[in-house]
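Data card: per-record layout.
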Amino acid sequence: MNERIAKLYDQALVLESNGDYVAGELDPVKFAELIVRDCMRMCEVSQVSLLTHGLREQSYGASNAKQHISDWFGVEE
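The structure for this 77-residue chain is written out next.
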């Protein structure tokens, strides 16, 4: 598992403690949502980078991709 996925996995763990030890159980819905949000964030980063380099037309593609991902998976920003 790559480092980024491992971090998202850790964020999706639901931890329970009984005083002696801590156990974690993965919340699969939260894990999936975190992955989708990360993909949307990468579209945003690409859009900003393209705009910074004066590539306005190409930046619309990144913006549209982010919106399509959001719509497809039903995840809000």
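Known properties of this structure: The radius of gyration is 17 Å. The chain has one domain: 3-73.

See the next section for split statistics.
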